Amino acid sequence: SVCMTNCPTLIVTVGLPARGKTYISKKLTRYLNWIGVPTREFNVGQYRRECVKIYKSFEFFRPDNEEGLKIRRQCASAALNDVRQYLTEDGGQVAVFDATNTTRERRDTIIQFAEQNGFKVFFVESVCEDPDVIQENIVQVKLGSPDYTNCNTEEAAEDFMKRIKCYENSYEPLDEVLDRDLSFIKIMDVGQRYLVNRVLDHIQSRIVYYLMNIHITPRSIYLCRHGESELNVNGRIGGDSGLTPRGKEFGKKLSQFLQTQGISDLKVWTSQMKRTIQTAESLSVPYEQWKVLNEIDAGVCEEMMYEEIQDHFPLEFALRDQDKYRYRYPKGESYEDLVQRLEPVIMELERQENVLVICHQAVMRCLLAYFLDKTAEELPYLKCPLHTVLKLTPVAYGCKVESISLNVDAVNTHRERPEVGISLEAHRRAHTHPQEDGSVWPDMAFSPRAFSSTGCTVQASAFLLTHGVNLTPNPQHSKHPTRK
Amino acid sequence: MEFPQLEYLRRRRCDSAVNTEQKKLTQTPLLKIWVPWMGCSLNRRRGSSVPQFCNSPTMIVMVGLPARGKTYISKKLTRYLNWIGVPTKMFNVGQYRREAVKIYKNFEFFKPDNEEAMKIRKACATAALKDVAAYFSKEQGQVAVFDATNTTRERRAIILSYAKERGYKVFFVESICDDPEIIAENIKQVKFGSPDYVDRDIDEALEDFSRRIECYRASYMPMDDEEDRKLSYIKIFDVGSRYLVNRVQDHIQSRIVYYLMNIHVTPRSIYLSRHGESELNLLGRIGGDSGLSPRGQKYANALATFIRGQNIRELKVWTSHMKRTIQTAEALGVQYEQWKALNEIDAGVCEELTYEEIQENFPEEFALRDQDKYRYRYPKGESYEDLVHRLEPVIMELERQENVLVVCHQAIFRCLLAYFLDKPADELPYLRCPLHTVLKLTPVAYGCKVESFFLNIEAVNTHRERPVNVDINRNPEEALLTVPEHV
Asked: Residues of B with CB below 8 A from A202's CB?
């Protein structure tokens, strides 16, 4: 077997209330899932809300409230149970255990649990004493919490501050000396400073890098495609054509739109394909070209119409519809490959503030899926029409999306998920690729990536493997059908 | 990973005299980058783009007692940054001192009350700073690594004000270590061989160097959480067991921190090999996705024998997604990991052609490639420069790992080798990476020991030297002069 399985990782948040633990948990979970690491968060507060239907007041959290303590301990246990289920039976690779975990005693319990089950533990502590940050935090996410639906703003804020107080006396932060054998990152003052101890493996290293690059400064990210291109109008995919007159019109409208937005210090990014660059040129501002923002490489299908693909490569066409995320064009790429190559873009987007990304349909779908936490199944079918700008503004635990159509007509390039008709089994029997030594080798272009390059377990495209898809390689299928 | 600040930056001149005709895009012939046609301002490469859109230059300033790995880190970081395309240079103040004071007598030179020596040392630091300024302003340098102890707040203040006056960013890298074993190993690896101790025996050298360290200790002021809270720095404790990171300002500092947090000093070896000879290799065709030839299969078996003979602890094996590397790894009978990033360079429209066919069908492209093989991008394909960007995660993971065997392809091999052996961009595409030869790289002192093992199975030669005539108008014979033989 080709796969090497890392043991699962349990990420444990640590910190007083309103220090951003849930924000970090959700964001980290979203990022890890996007890069292909099955991750789920377990918020102990949620368990508590299910157990204690109605939240009365901060008194529940008083350290001398025996009843409260019992319930809270039970909730933590229930959550850990679900963690075990997720990591050992449900194919999870990372579980984020989101709770205050402010006492060494609680953390020791978790460490023991992890040891018994063969999980690695990585602590993420958020330490912050800036009253402004804490206040903003409370306003953004606490006042709207289910705990406070029936309170007015002042009541809620006051109760929450008292709740924080309940934890303060018994808070034992992670210590350089006492906890020197643990793996952890301590985030201080919303990313001003970090203490990183004993990073054990690749996934922890990536998590640290990610956490060190995110910030909470308000900003917006604008995503749009290039203006309508010549090949778009001809119903052809890929290629490197220029803009149609309507596409150029979009460029102008985009420029006007951006001016109305009054954005300070906007960065503009494009791919290295003509159509995005032409679009950016209309803006009369500096822009940066990223090769990794290039459209998905359709390999042998480049510049074909869907009808032609159906004619020349009916099996490919069907397979793509079976699993559009993992399907790789012969001599081309898959959406899954795209996500891999877009990761540095996401990382840089996290670092930056106001950015406009002018890209392509498949690329935009991948980026959008990251921001809106869409699954691999949904990603290839996200609607990203031409001549429409999506404005993404982080808010609370998620992202506000505004879709702004710039009122310039364009063709529709969106293809819905169709009914799948072809019988793969029949096709498999008809096509094999025999080797000289008698073995049968599947077309390598179809060989699904059996192992993610980043040391995380990844489900191989089991569908293709189990159907043993073998194809007759066609030597005339060059990248550019027009050539020969 | 790409480095956006140094990607081709295009600043459109807000010049109302430019007419719309000139706004048409053209693709630069070598890099295949779309640019607005604006006469001679075309083809301006990174480093020569308009200055105000480059990041301000960055000074990385090392801090720490002697034998804490500062020079090791400086050299490694410099090598990494240059490889990913960030022009970086190291300035080792000890070197300046050795040039000023031709003969090193003993540790007394470093005594804090040695006024004469203090003057010299300060002058050396100043000279190094001047060279840093020249590197930034005249040589388009982007990062300078200032390698010295810089153990006093006073010295660091001088550097900070020097940088502030000139608009350089400063990022400190402090290495703290009190493990006597690590320090002793350090001294053994790099100090005994130093020019300072060339005429001493080991015990003398060790004694003298230990006293040298003591000279610094009394006045050592580590970076402080409180006092230095406004500065940008990383503190590395005990060779990477722990890190404290403060105020990372920008992208390059974030990359530097990530890199420093991934390197280690545990002894290990990296084995690099190409796939066994392939069917297309035999035909003299580039690219494609063919299987192994019979000789290639023999090599795979020989490789398995060789690897077993090396008795490597916990070897990881990596391949690309292409058939020929996977077939090679299969013969090893161990688990392996496939990386798409290790796929051979995409030759675009030239895939599966012979050099003769490329000359016949794309003579201009063929010539452009010979003119600048590193930056040249095949039409609808990639350049070596693109390869380096996509290999960066591989390098990062190689740094994290211990014993690894990478089974890859000629262009990939060249890029990886250039990283380990610090080869510049113009040499990289011409590094010799013959088939059926394993390179074993073992980090030692400040560099890498290389051992080459040819496994005694004949294979075609796939190495094409740069021909003398690279002009677009050359004769086909001149272009094909250096093409290796094939079927």
From this structure: 397, 400
